[in-house]
């Protein structure tokens, strides 16, 4: 009988994790939550209380005890690096690109094709977004080069949402909702805009960065419910504190940086904060590095209504009324697609301070002053 041994992973160049900066930076105080205690008696309730302040005040936190090994994480970086290092005529095949005219963020986004802040300086973000591996998403762009790694990518993708579901359980407990209230609105088998992302920032000259206020990615909130960012050492990600200060998000060894997105902010009537963040030119000892990132972006199911939830806590706080579910529905697909169009379907990534974005009765301020 043939052996059931798994085939060896395809050999590709190894990604090398950059060292941490030696410069003294103004780091944000980020709560670290160890999920390894999640299934212990009373574990979920204890973790929810640990998380409450972080998601209410800053919207950013880190998780450890995730079940992902460093080898598994670094293999995803290997795959992302190998794809993003392909020639542009290969990775940038039009059949596999994002279609921002339709608000479709699945596929490849090229760097150096749009300008920034009305200058001649070019955008330096390059990425590929891979949809969930379900029949309903099989028509979405998934580059042939990546198909040879499909089993590894799919496993990582599915486990990412399983991990996010634990975080959603904690959010439900915080809001005094049934524990599965949010997780059942983000099921892997349901059609949604979820995606696993490989993304790299291609460094600019110091002179060009100065022309755009050292901006590598302009200040924004995330469009979906929850973002998972596997922690990396190149500084640059900053969050805006409630006091209006910009602080660097610190790396967490073997951890994942998480932040609340717009749709969870809407569901919680603003109790869970979708925090404004940006990426700036890294410090001098890292400014030359091609900053590679690994993400999972969780979006609500396409047909899920994202207006405020019937939370007893939110009612006691006066954030929602007894008729909170009576308003006109805004569906997950509708909000996310419109937001993607609003953000990306332009030739220039402009400064959006004070601008608002609205779908139905749901409104966010793109970047607060």
UniProtKB/TrEMBL annotation:
GO biological process per UniProt: small molecule biosynthetic process
Q: Which UniProt keywords apply?
A: Iron, Metal-binding, Oxidoreductase
Span of domain Fe2OG dioxygenase? 192-300
The record, for InterPro entries, names: DIOX_N, IPNS-like_FE2OG_OXY, IPNS-like_sf, Iron_ascorbate_oxido_reductase, Oxoglu/Fe-dep_dioxygenase_dom
Indicate yes or no for the key word Oxidoreductase. yes
Tell me, what's a Pfam family for it? 2OG-FeII_Oxy
Q: Which residues form the signal peptide?
A: none
Which positions, given as ranges, span the membrane?
Answer: none
GO MF annotation: an example? oxidoreductase activity
- State the similarity comment: Belongs to the iron/ascorbate-dependent oxidoreductase family.
The record's section on PANTHER family has: 2-OXOGLUTARATE (2OG) AND FE(II)-DEPENDENT OXYGENASE SUPERFAMILY PROTEIN-RELATED
Name of the protein in question: 2OG-Fe(II) oxygenase superfamily protein
């Amino acid at each position: 009988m043939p052996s059931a041994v798994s085939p060896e992973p395809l050999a590709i160049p190894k990604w090398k994790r950059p060292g941490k900066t030696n410069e003294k930076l103004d780091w944000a105080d980020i709560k670290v939550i160890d999920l390894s205690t999640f299934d212990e008696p009373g574990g979920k309730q204890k973790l929810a209380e640990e998380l409450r302040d972080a998601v209410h005040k800053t919207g950013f936190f880190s998780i450890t005890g995730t079940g992902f090994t460093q080898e598994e994480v670094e293999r995803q970086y290997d795959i992302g690096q190998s794809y993003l290092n392909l020639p542009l005529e290969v990775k940038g095949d039009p059949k596999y690109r994002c279609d921002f005219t339709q608000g479709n963020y699945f596929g490849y986004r090229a760097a150096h094709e749009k300008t920034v802040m009305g200058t001649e300086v070019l955008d330096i973000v390059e990425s590929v977004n891979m949809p969930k591996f379900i029949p309903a998403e099989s028509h979405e762009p998934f580059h042939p080069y990546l198909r040879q790694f499909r089993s590894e990518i799919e496993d990582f993708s599915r486990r990412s949402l399983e991990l996010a579901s634990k975080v959603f359980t904690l959010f439900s407990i915080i809001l005094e909702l049934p524990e599965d209230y949010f997780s059942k609105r983000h099921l892997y088998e349901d059609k949604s805009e979820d995606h696993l992302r490989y993304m790299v920032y291609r460094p600019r000259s110091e002179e060009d960065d100065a022309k755009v206020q050292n901006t590598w990615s302009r200040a924004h909130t995330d469009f979906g419910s929850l973002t998972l960012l596997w922690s990396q050492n190149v500084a640059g990600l900053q969050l805006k504190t409630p006091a209006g200060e910009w602080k660097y998000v610190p790396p967490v060894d073997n951890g994942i940086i998480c932040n609340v997105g717009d749709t969870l902010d809407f569901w919680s009537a603003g109790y869970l904060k979708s925090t404004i963040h940006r990426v700036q030119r890294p410090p001098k000892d890292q400014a030359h590095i091609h900053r590679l990132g690994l993400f999972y972006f969780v979006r609500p199911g396409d047909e899920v209504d994202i207006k405020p939830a019937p939370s007893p806590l939110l009612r006691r706080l006066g954030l929602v009324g007894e008729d909170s579910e009576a308003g006109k529905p805004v569906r997950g697909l509708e909000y996310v697609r419109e937001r993607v169009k609003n953000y990306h379907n332009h030739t220039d990534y402009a400064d959006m301070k004070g601008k608002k974005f609205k779908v139905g009765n749901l409104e966010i301020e793109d970047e607060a002053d």
